[in-house]
Write a structure and sequence with these properties.
The protein is α+β, with helices and mostly antiparallel strands and 709 residues long. It has 21 helices and 21 strands. Strands 7-15-20-17-16-21 form a six-stranded antiparallel beta barrel. The two termini are 53 Å apart.
Length: 709
């Protein structure tokens, strides 16, 4: 029971309101102490309220119309001992839950402006609203006899056997399982995933509805619910709260997940037996991704989904969210203000701690979930809408509850102003607020690519036959050393033909020197000989290009696999090996505008490679670009290739999503890794900046960038 003060008792002395005639009462389960409970049904609002023995007795004697008379009458005719304040608490509950007639309820607050009402409606309904699409109760009643077998223990055992057989088949086809994952990434696989997901969610909700109808509950509507504009299917099984048996309510709450798990079991068997095709892909989706997402989402007790109702029924603790939130609010008031306000309900210290922890976890979970949805909208959709959702959710989940709590603190100021705890809390708050405006030196970082200052990608000018490979990966080389030799049949034929022409021309020139008849052709024969020798030299030069030598001292970093003498090389654009010089190393990094503005040539930096995150390499800034980069010429740094730069491919290059400045660095020493290109991060000592200024700068720049102001 809630504890009320003077205003509540004053309200109890006002004209006594009348209960609404359409309310219905159902027997409920006994509470933890063994006392009976009842479920109060509001058929107009389609809501159910669990009430205890005291509330039931007060409602039974409501006709007396006076708090003190009701308390005296209940105390005389039952074993309960009530006071007028106990009755006032029930009256407050009746007003809050709208159990009394509207004309006898307290007068509403003055009307607010139309725009304010529209704004309040939007705030309340964009987070979660429902669109009913069907009234399935009559169809469920006709369908239930035909599907009752699906809920029998025998079918559950058969499903377990199907799962075991399917898993055995999956183990025998592990390679096909890997290929199925790749097939799912195609447009056809994604389309099948969407259709299968729709069918599974329909079966999920149908499972809830059929089990509820089996237990005699009416299912008034099925449709779509939107959680922060994200669509999810729903089935209205609110009437399950009128069931006194908690096990029946648990079966209704678990029916959806049980349906999906059953489908997954049979889909696993189907995947192991079906041939490749659309049906097999659909079975794969059912057997893997769909039921996993259902378990993770629907069994979470932090949202009002299946897991929450299962937990309420398992603990026999209705309205777990609201009651735990009330405990958490009082706990925070005691902790921060020293306000010894009575607890909303009496629990053991351990149970109260568990409720407070559950409430805090639920608040955090919902905040992270809604902000995650807003970020998804921002990252993959309309940027300005994502920022708006972010602002609304921070206001709704943090600012607005905070303002309501501050209003409660102000109203109860007389009760806690004498405590010392609030002074300590105020001091801590002032200290933290002050620290937020103190400039702090921090470290800024940016994606970086570290590589030797001199590298060479070895290619052949054309496809050729490898005659010899003179080096291996990791071997050192000297300038001028031959790395590999290759040849082509066409060049060999050209070389033989050029040599033959040269020999023939030399013989003709030698013969003309002693033959008087040939002396007249001496000049033309000399020209033919020169041409033949030039052609032979050109062929030898071309053959020389197929013998690659090292232009500098270095080391062979890597080599194309399967390169062996006698094998054919790939196309001319294919890199056969990489050569890196020893000694000097350099890096290129990309940083935001604020970081770039504070960097100068010679500025110290630290480079941490992704392949060796435990060691940092000292470096210094060589140059900073004056303008932001329009392209990122290092694809390995973008997210699509495993990097950290958010960029989109356009016009054959990668365009960064935000302004980034290119910074070149020189390493003070070589990293303890092989001399090749390594992805990592560059860290710089940033200018002193307060946390508040940093948040303001990030928010304002994001707003200007996305809103275009």
């Amino acid at each position: 029971m809630l504890s009320l003060s003077g205003p509540a008792l004053a309200a109890a002395r006002a004209p006594w309101p009348a209960l609404r005639e359409e309310l219905r009462l159902h027997d409920g389960p006994a509470d933890a102490a063994g006392h009976p409970t009842w479920t109060l049904q509001d058929p107009v609002r389609h809501r159910f309220l669990r009430i205890d023995w005291t509330t039931w007795e007060v409602l039974r004697h409501w006709w007396l119309g006076d708090a003190q008379l009701i308390a005296d009458h209940v105390s005389v005719h039952t074993t309960l001992t009530l006071s007028a304040q106990d009755v006032a608490e029930v009256l407050a509950l009746a007003r809050r839950e709208e159990l009394v007639h509207p004309q006898s309820a307290p007068l509403p607050q003055p009307a607010v402006a139309a725009w304010r009402r529209a704004f309040d409606w939007l705030l309340h309904n964009y987070l979660f609203f429902r669109i009913p699409l069907a009234r399935p109760d009559r169809a469920l009643k006709a369908l239930l006899p035909w599907l009752r077998w699906a809920g029998q223990p025998g079918f559950a055992l058969l499903s377990l056997l199907a799962l075991a057989a399917g898993l055995f088949g999956v183990l025998q086809q592990s390679e096909r399982l890997h290929a199925q994952w790749l097939d799912l990434m195609s447009w056809r696989g994604l389309l099948l995933y969407g259709l299968t997901l729709f069918a599974v969610k329909l079966a999920h909700e149908l499972g809830h509805a059929l089990v509820a109808r089996h237990h005699g509950c009416r299912v008034p509507t099925m449709g779509l619910a939107f959680m922060v504009l994200w669509p999810v299917a729903y089935t209205d099984t609110t009437e399950a709260w009128q069931l006194a048996d908690p096990r029946a309510r648990m079966r209704i709450a678990a029916a959806g997940v049980r349906t999906e798990l059953t489908l997954a079991a049979w889909a696993t068997l189907a995947w192991s037996l079906l041939p490749d095709g659309n049906l097999r892909t659909a079975a794969f989706v059912l057997a893997t991704m769909t039921w996993v997402s259902s378990v993770l989402i629907n069994l979470s007790p932090f949202m009002r989904f299946d897991g929450y109702f299962l937990l309420c029924d398992a603990l026999d603790f209705p309205n777990l969210h609201e009651r735990s939130f009330a405990q958490a609010r009082v706990a925070l008031r005691r902790l921060l203000l020293g306000w010894a306000r009575p607890w909303p309900e009496d629990f053991s210290p351990r149970a109260r701690q568990a409720l407070v922890a559950f409430a805090l976890t639920t608040w955090g979970w919902r905040l992270v979930l809604y902000l995650g949805i807003a970020w998804t909208v921002y990252a993959f959709g309309f940027k300005l809408l994502g920022m708006g959702l972010f602002a609304v959710e921070v206001g709704w989940f943090i600012a607005w509850p905070g303002l309501r709590e501050l209003r409660t603190w102000r109203e109860g100021h007389a009760e806690w102003r004498g405590a010392a705890r609030w002074k300590v809390s105020l001091g801590v708050l002032v200290l933290l607020g002050g620290l937020a405006f103190v400039p702090w030196r921090s470290t800024a970082s940016g994606a970086a690519l570290v590589q030797p200052s001199q590298t060479l990608a070895v290619r052949l000018p054309a496809a050729a036959m490898l005659d010899a490979i003179e080096v291996s990966p990791g071997s050192p080389v000297k300038a001028g050393q031959v790395l590999l030799r290759a040849s082509t049949p066409d060049l060999a034929r050209q070389a033989a033909a050029a040599q033959a022409r040269t020999v023939r021309a030399e013989q003709e020139v030698a013969g003309a020197a002693v033959d008087s008849d040939q002396q007249a052709r001496w000049g033309s024969l000399q020209a033919e000989l020169a041409t033949a020798r030039e052609q032979a030299q050109a062929v030898r030069d071309e053959q020389g290009r197929l013998q690659v030598t090292a232009p500098f001292d270095g080391i062979v970093v890597d080599m194309l696999p399967d390169l062996t003498p006698g094998s054919s090389t790939p196309a001319a654009t294919q890199v056969l090996m990489h050569l890196a010089a020893r000694g000097a190393w350099s890096a290129v990094a990309y940083v935001d505008e604020v970081t770039a503005r504070g960097l100068r040539s010679g500025h110290a930096a630290q480079l941490v490679l992704d392949a060796d995150p435990l060691h940092a390499v000292a470096a210094h800034v060589h140059s900073v670009a004056a303008q932001p980069s329009s392209l990122v010429p290092e694809p390995v740094l973008v997210q699509a290739h495993g990097g950290s730069i958010d960029a989109k491919e356009a016009n054959g290059g990668w365009v960064p999503a935000k302004s980034l400045y290119r910074v070149t660095l020189t390493l003070d020493q070589a990293p303890p890794l092989a001399p090749r290109s390594w992805r990592g991060h560059a860290a710089f000592a940033a200018e002193a900046e307060s946390i508040a200024h940093r948040l303001w700068r990030a928010g304002s720049s994001g707003w200007v960038r996305e809103a275009g102001f």
